[in-house]
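During the reporting period the student researcher (J.K.) took over the structure-prediction task from the postdoctoral fellow and processed the backlog of single-chain submissions. One of the processed entries is reproduced below for the supervisory committee.
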Amino acid sequence: MNAPIKVGFLVSYDWYLLKNALPLIYAEADVIYLALDKKRLTWSGNRFDFDESGFYEMIESIDVNKKIKVYEDDFFVEGLKPMQCEVRERNLLAKQMGEGGWHIQLDADEYFLDFKGFVEYLKKMPLNQKEINICAVLINLFKKTDTGILYIIHQNLDLIQIATNKPHYEYGRKNGYFNHISPFFLLHDTWARSEEEIKQKIANWGHKNDFDTEKYFLFWKSLDENNYQAVKDFHPISPTTWQALMFVEGQGIAQITEKFTNKSFPLSKFELFLKNNRNLARLKHLWSKIVK
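J.K. obtained the following structure tokens:
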């Protein structure tokens, strides 16, 4: 019997993006949990507007096989930093999803390009191995323009821990487990929002205390398809992480997703093998300590 595929989403003021994200994973998931603060508070303790009827109508239209469960709880705790609230929510969601199977945690703004292939990839891996994270590569969408969208060129592969056999979260989705790289992509609809949404995002997300949010907003606002080539090293917390911007034509997430569907993975099978070998990773870690 195959291990169950359990998918959990964190849901907040951008819940409506689930209309893009849920259909991409629905067929292959065995169960889907949507974690929503029952007081409609962000991790910063700010109340957000929430269209209750719109939310449940969307779920009903997608959930033809009754896989979706809404999990409501108090995810904001006075005295905790936003990132601490995020980690707490992720661990509470994992507990709610129950032990066993592959646990996959996503955000509403993450669109899996080949979830069927990813699930097939997971099912070929032993579930009862030592604790492990299965990572995918993010393609970060940065800003919509009149004719297309700007996306981020990352210094290295922008890996995100997606699946695990033993859910435990310490910083976002990170922990001390071995990170295994899978050859799959997610479109991250992270900054390609309206001005109002960007203001709300940077005022409430887990990193809001780590940079000058107003200054960064003005920088983001100034960009378009005519000046993006001049932008270098612009990550809000670690500048050199985001090296440059690229532009792709298209209107709407459906068109943009289609543009990236056949994107080639940047590593060969042999390169992936080397990176995913635990013994080689251990030797590399020991060597780095020796040469320090």
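The committee noted the following: The first strand starts at residue 5 and ends at 11.
J.K. will present the remaining backlog at the next meeting.
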